[in-house]
Amino acid sequence: MAVKETADDMAVVEGEDLIAVLRALAERAGKIVLAYYVEGEEIEVRSKDDSSPVTAADEACEEFILEALAKLTPDIPVVSEEAASGGHIPEVAAGERFWLVDPLDGTREFISRNGEFTVNIALIEDGEPVAGVVHAPAMAMTWAGVRERGSEKGLAVYAETDKPTMPIAARTPPADGLTIVASRRHGSGDELESFLADKQVKERVSAGSSLKFCLVATAKADLYPRFGRTMEWDTAAGQAVLMAAGGRVETRDGAPLRYGKPEYENPYFIAWGARA
Questions:
Q1: The overall pTM is greater than 0.85
Q2: What CATH number is given to the structural domain containing 20?
């Protein structure tokens, strides 16, 4: 397996090998999630301190991913949603490489059984998501991407579960108008309408979880504005895929959306396809 030697003497898989590793990890984690997604069986739901829901599927999936990453890269810390919610956040020095994990992004979609939930795993390097995987277990779909830090594009792929990967790329805005993708459950109201007021909009679509980034990465949408609260584990994997596909994610003032922020909370952001 190809490795990349780094300045701190750690080695991580890179390129297509890293995509293969992340895909295998996410798809195995997805099978754990699906074991709790059985038709006719009640999904037990609890509320966390922030009133967001959590299920046994979230916790079992996270446990598997944390164990796997500890074996794969024992020297790279992992920040994961459920552990962080319980107060277990490792010390991450400024600029340090770390993993960001959302074991079940879109728990409300999981509970409602609409299929639009994902397993998210991303590798952060000096504040940038340089690799990531988004796997939708109920849809049997996986998106993954990897790129060099600071580069505008890398290798991005899509695959159906257990099928070969195919390359994907974000598109430049079409002449007949933009396709806007928005959150299925967290509308942005007047702020979104104000942002779109001077743009030619052809179509609006809704999607749950990090699938919104993947729609832009696969040229099925052009723009994903988010003017609501998100955490870094919600966005890192999707951003990694989109940036590898040639897109970008920026704050309202045009700065790149970066990671390792205090409390791991994001500002409002806009995810764009390829530049015109």
A1: yes
A2: 3.30.540.10
